[in-house]
Amino acid sequence: MPPRWWEVFGDPVMVQLVETAYAENLTLRSAGLRVVEAQSRRGITIGALFPQKQEAFGSYTYDVQSRNTPAGRSGDGRDRTIKVWQGGFDAAWEIDLWGKFRRAIEASDADLLAAVASYDDVLVSLVSEVAATYLTIRTLDERLAVAVDNVRVQQESLDIARVRFEAGGTSELDVQQAATLLHDTEATIPQLQLLRRGSIDSLCVLLGLPPQDLPEALVGTPGRIPAVPPEVTVGIPADLLRRRPDVHAAEMRAAAQSARIGVASAELLPAFQLVGTLGLSADSARKFFEARSFEAVAGPAITWPILNYGRLINDVRLQDATFQELATDYSNSVLVAQQEVEDSLAGYVRGTERVERLQAAVDAANRAVELSLIQYREGATDFVTVLNSQQSKLREDDQLVNERGIVAVSVVSLYKALGGGWEIREGQDFVPAKTRDEMQERTRWGGLLSQGAQTRDTGESASDLEKRPWWKLRWWWPRW
């Protein structure tokens, strides 16, 4: 399947619209920012692998003891004030003996991949919606042209009926019937124009523009439905599971939840910590930096929530049930993907056959209108025959144009079902330059806003993550 499948229609306007939507669509921009959010959460999780408590502290206390306490009532004349200057560094490191923190990092790793896949899914939907909306506009253009052409033909019939009535060759009934058909056809034009206006407004939103601000050069001029390719490249069905972003996102969400089961299970086991304090303590600032003011405390610690009353066990059950739910959702997403591909293929094939039949019907209807007018002009038939043939022509012309538009949209739906289109973001940043500059002014982001920092694992699957040793994870040092 071609990665830029919209180019198979050979319409430069469609290509330009897709590129504009990719650069300006606000929904896609929000999805890109969710990738940055996932990257930041991943960095937070990584920090838990290192000493969890690293704090510098300092304090000064001035304590005056009450005279109504035993120490304050003593008559030895000692000073009732206590001054303490303190400063130092505290550290505590829970050793990841049971893999709790590493499993949490695996979950964040998979969450990041799911966020990237969700971005790709939004991009696939965006590209298909832009293409489908553009094809709808072009379909309405041709339907308007058909309506205008039928108005012209029906106006000629009305003129003929009026001439014959004025000449006494027919009754006024023929004139009124011809006028009714003409005005009824004219009434469809404003309705089609309204539908076209609504489609243009929808396209404006997809392009990140206010409604009615679409440049005239794009779709302002009426055009024709782009030619549908005679053949559609589908590819190998097995590749569908690797290509569809929504399937990949469902897989990554299940992988993340699988890791969270390990996090919850580790809470049932004892936690081993190394704690320590280094500092200075003195009763006056003058003595604070003396060697005798140094003090230190260090040693191991263990905590084990023995009496958790089922809370931790039920948390493991909760995480396991959630994983099973997400695994089921993944299986369902695969079935839905296959259904969408089959439905779109059937729509394309059957729609092409229907277009061929309707084209033959349109040719016959045009010939019937031509013959009925000749016979009516010569007085060989009544005006009812002309009305029937013209009504049939209008119906067949409109059905043909509408079906051609449906077939074109079915091609778009097929490429969407195949998961095509997200490849255009490869090598590009998830956050546009303007937004990135605004964020850099507020916060020190380092390299997190660049595409390279966010897609280092986008080619990996859940099985790849599980096979990779923990010490080979690429998250080891955060990017500042």
Mean pLDDT reading: 85
Main structural class: alpha+beta
What is the highest CATH level, the class? Answer: Mainly Alpha
Taken from the alpha-carbon principal axes, the silhouette is: elongated
List segments where confidence is low: pLDDT < 50 over at least 5 consecutive residues.
Answer: 454-462, 469-480
CATH architecture: Up-down Bundle
Q: Determine the fraction of residues in helical runs and give it as a percent range.
A: 55-70%
End-to-end gap:
39 Å
What is the total number of structural domains? 1
Furnish the topology, listing elements before pairings:
Layout lengths: L11 H13 L1 H22 L5 E12 L5 H4 L7 E14 L5 H67 L5 H35 L9 H4 L20 H4 L1 H22 L4 E12 L11 E10 L7 H67 L5 H35 L15 H10 L8 H4 L7 H6 L13
Antiparallel strand pairs: 1-2, 2-3, 3-4
Helix pairs in contact: 1-4, 2-4, 4-5, 4-8, 4-10, 5-10, 8-9, 9-10
Report on this model:
This protein has 480 residues and is α+β, with helices and mostly antiparallel strands. The chain has one domain (5-53, 104-264, 311-426, 449-462): Outer membrane efflux proteins (OEP). Helix content is 61%, strand content 10%. It has helices at 12-24, 26-47, 70-73, 100-166, 172-206, 216-219, 240-243, 245-266, 311-377, 383-417, 433-442, 451-454, 462-467; strands at 53-64, 81-94, 271-282, 294-303. Strands 1-2-3-4 form a four-stranded antiparallel β-sheet, with no helix packed on it. α4 packs antiparallel against α8 (245-266).
